[in-house]
Amino acid sequence: MSDNDDVPFNRNFPLKPGVVEEVRPGVRRVLCNNPSPFTFTGTVSYIVGTGNVAIIDPGPDDAAHAAALLEAVRGETVTHIFVTHTHRDHSPNTARIKQATGAPVYAEGPHRASRPRFESEKHNPESGVDRDFAPDIRIAHGDVVEGAGWRLEAVATPGHTANHLAFAWPERKFNFVGDHVMGWSTSIVAPPDGSMIDYMDSLDRLAAREEDLYFSGHGPEIPDGPRFVRFLIRHRKAREASILHRLAKGEADIPTMVRAIYIGIDPRLTTAAGYSVLAHLEDLVARGVVATDGDPVITGTYRMA
Question: Which residues form the Metallo-beta-lactamase domain (predicted)?
Answer without folding.
Answer: 42-218
